[in-house]
Amino acid sequence: MSEESNIDIYRRRFMSGTATAAAGLAVAPGVMLTEVARAKPADQAVSSDIRWGMLIDTNKCNEGCNDCVTACNEEHNLEGFGRPATDAQWIRKVTLKDKQTGNIQTLPMLCQHCEHPPCVDVCPTGASFKREDGIVLVDKHICIGCRYCMMACPYKARSFVHEKLQDQMPYSPRGKGTVESCTFCVHRVDEDILPACVVACKEENHNAITFGDMNDPDSEISQQLKQHSSRQVRADLELNTGVRYRGI
Amino acid sequence: MIKYSLITLLFSLLLGVYTPGTAADVASGEDTSGPFIPKAQRRFSEEQGCVEPTGEMRANHMEYILDQRDATVHEGIRTRQYSLQECINCHVSDAEDAPRVDNEEHFCSSCHTYAAVSIDCFQCHADRPVKSRFDSLSNSSMHRIGSAAVPPTTLDSEQLKVLSNEDFGNE
Amino acid sequence: MKDIVFKEIDGGKPFYLLLGFIGFFVLAALGSAWYMEHNGHWVTGMNNQIVWGTPHVFAVFLIVAASGALNVASISSVFQKTAYKPLARLSGLLAIALLAGGLAILVLDLGRPDRLIVAMTYYNFKSIFAWNIILYIGFMAVVAIYLWMMMERKMNKFTRVAGFSAFIWRLILTTGTGSIFGFLVARQAYDTAILAPMFIIMSFAFGLAIFILVLLGIYKWSDRPLGDSILFRLKNLLGVFIGAVLYFVLTYHLTNLYITENHGVEQFILMDGGVYTKLFWIVQILLGSLLPLALLYHPSTGKSRGWIGIASLLVIIGGLAQMYVIIIGGQAYPMEMFPGKEVVSSFADGITGSYTPSLPEIILGMGGIAVALAATFVGVRVLRFLPSTLADDAVDPHYPAREAEASA
Asked: Does A7 sit within 8 Å of B135, measured CB to CB?
């Protein structure tokens, strides 16, 4: 069983439905009923009971480390064309130096998944939208590539696809002439898996990024937000961002 | 009469839907006048080849894909039966030299070129099966949201209900 | 004052040569658009920092000028100034033509121009951009109806109502266009209500400057008399509008200079913004505002057709520079995400966004102007938009009095 690649497991499930589904589940035995009840079934729509959020502890964010960025680029196949001005960057490492004190910090910037996203307000066709669970996305089927959302985003979180692409990741379609940005790895989150950048940070043992449900008072992120002071970037705009920072 | 059919022909051309061959040809699946359509990699079930009867898929595949697209993008519904990704996984070979969508031998292009209907899907979606890093990660418990190990949930609620009624500890 | 006789301009070789010349620019623009779409936008100067570039400078300029071009008609129909009545039809035609030119650029620059139908069928009513789409289409319809009321004798009695609707519509439209920038909280240069009225006053100046040039050109080439009286009225009005634009620019910058958090962006535009600073002071203020003001009001140049034409051209060039400074300069100034910090990243955070206009973008922008001119010339060729004479004795309502004064 464990020799089998995940794709094959999935393929069998796809082929014959419920019977082999149980076999697929057998990978992670035990504690199932309670846990299964917690995870979202594939045919159920996301709900506003959940608000996904991210807390980034800048004190734990290592200055030389770029692993979250690399992981994102790999996950979504954001291979560049060697043209920094037009290549997509969904997450980027930013280094801050205090003008008065010279203090240096580093942190990742990405789509802040605002509760009141300016990109969604300005989008003429409604291609920029916020899911019920707070994840801000671009519906590339109706994006006309006007780039007004990029004018409106206070975090410069969006990229425009400036050239023709091929072999996109199946779960992360992207194409020339449309705007894109961090999806909070929505394809993972829908299957209860952490976003790629969070995993990369964990694997490096930096643990600077906590991801979870901000509506659930018992989640790790809610607990941390409660215990420690944190900040929203451009809090003056009152956008109620889904990404919070500690230590800035 | 000739005049009438000529007008119909012109009108259909205008709408871009004209295909020579009748509905019966399409349903029988044995027409020799139509395009060469590559065979799928496998069958959906014992009873039928595709996720719906072939005639239905030929006529209405875009409706299924469109509904699924909106459900997935906006509501996070990730059932696989009607997803474009599954169309590609099953209908296009993952071989290195498999035809791309700009080639008439690609499953989608074979018919769309023949019917002169342009498709927009593959400006953003991959036109052949792509193996992803994400698939191999799905089983590791350290990547789950929350601390406890939770299994992947590519199952729909119907399947989960069946599961929770079964004593699958003995499986 | 005699009855005004409207007549099509003559065709013939010169007309078709001119049309061919303009058509060449339209074709070149279509080629550029195809080149940009085929390769993707990386072949342009635009990038992830400067997302709106030269095409948008031309497009917004033309759209703003379009509503301004309608002013001459509004003065005649809404404010009942009979002296402007002979010019009202051209004013309406020019308004539609300029808008068509601006929209053509905007659409051809989209990442997915093939999805124009999506832009027409999916609306997010919170988006000012979506409202603008409705306002643009509505403007064309309202002005077309207005023209019909003016040109169909039986409908003349509705001219005033139609003219009034068009006037209100154009005010809302330009408010909408200014608000495309005014509503943006993200960037220091925008996020201010003054942009909406400033765009209205800019439209007055740009639209009138284009109107004067087109009028001078067509009447010269078609050998029709154009009296000084009507021309001098227009050029005096242009002077007033230029002054009004200057006032708004001054207020905008004074307000920002008072507010400490905006000192950075002011320092950038007014002092060390390189090309943007030069464009602001030399082209927009000096060449585009002060020089034309002097030319229009100077006792000798103010009476010369050549100089009035040059002054109008300068206003247009200054207007394009102003758009460039607002649209591209506003994006080039780095966003203030972390006040009090120096910011460095791989995504051009904390540094001036780099942008060099590329040839296809410029050609596309010129193509928009060409579309507007072609539509105007074809319009006056096939329909009765222009009076056969605009000589003083034919159209100036005060002419008999003035004549008497002169002979006395």
From this structure: yes
CB A142 within 8 A of CB A179: no
Boundaries of domain holding C317: 6-407
Tokens of residue B106, six digits: 């690609």
Domain of residue A34, residue span: 6-38
Whether C51 is in a domain gets the answer yes
Does C101 map to a domain?
A: yes
Which DSSP state fits C281? I
Determine contact: A151 vs chain C, CB below 8 A.
yes
**What whole-number distance in Å separates Cα of residue A134 and Cα of residue A242?**
8
ipTM of the complex: 0.92
CA distance to partner chain A, nearest, from residue C23 (Å): 27
Per-residue pLDDT in tens (0 to 9) along chain C, 408 residues: 557 889 999 888 989 999 999 999 999 999 999 999 999 999 999 999 999 999 999 999 999 999 999 999 999 998 988 889 999 999 999 999 999 999 999 999 999 999 999 988 999 999 999 999 999 999 999 999 999 999 998 999 999 999 999 999 999 999 999 999 999 999 999 999 999 999 999 999 999 999 999 999 999 999 999 999 999 999 999 999 999 999 999 999 999 999 999 999 999 999 999 999 999 999 999 999 999 999 999 999 999 999 999 999 999 999 999 999 999 999 999 998 999 999 999 999 999 999 999 999 999 999 999 999 999 999 999 999 999 999 888 887 777 666 666 665
CATH number at residue C194: 1.20.1630.10
Run of H or E including A110 = strand A104-110
Residues 72-131 of A with CB under 8 A from C: 81, 83-89, 92-100, 109, 118, 120-127
Give the angle subtended at the CA of B144 by the CAs of A232 and A195, to the nearest 5°: 45
pLDDT digits (tens, 9 = 90+) for A116-152: 999 999 999 999 999 999 999 999 999 999 999 999 9
> Are A98 and A191 part of one and the same domain?
yes
Contact A45 B75 (CB under 8 A): yes
Non-local CB neighbours of A152 within 8 Å, separated by 6+ positions: A118, A119, A121, A122, C184, C185, C186
Q: How many domains does chain C have?
A: 1
Distance from CA of A27 to the nearest CA of B (A): 7
Q: What is the pTM of this model?
A: 0.88
Q: Which of A87, A88, A124 sits opposite C130 (nearest CB)?
A: A124
The per-residue DSSP string of C204-245 comes to HHHHHHHHHHHHHHHHHHTT--B-HHHHHHHHHHHHHHHHHH
| A14 and A91 co-located in one domain | no
Helix (H) or strand (E) holding C147: helix C128-151
Distances in Å between the Cα of C322 and the Cα atoms of C196, C249, C269, C296 are: 15, 10, 11, 20
Residue to test with chain A: of B51, B106, B159, B171, most A Cβ within 10 A: B159
User: How buried is residue B57: exposed, middle or buried, by Cβ count under 10 Å (0-12/13-18/19+)?
Assistant: middle
- Could you tell me the end-to-end alpha-carbon distance of chain C, in angstroms, rounded to an integer? 20
Residue B43 to chain A, least CA–CA distance (Å): 8
**Residues in B touching A174 (Cβ below 8 Å):** 124
Asked if residue C15 lies in contact with residue C317, where contact means CB atoms within 8 angstroms, the answer is no
How far apart are alpha carbons C203 and C26 in whole angstroms? 24
Strand runs labelled E in C6-140: 6-7
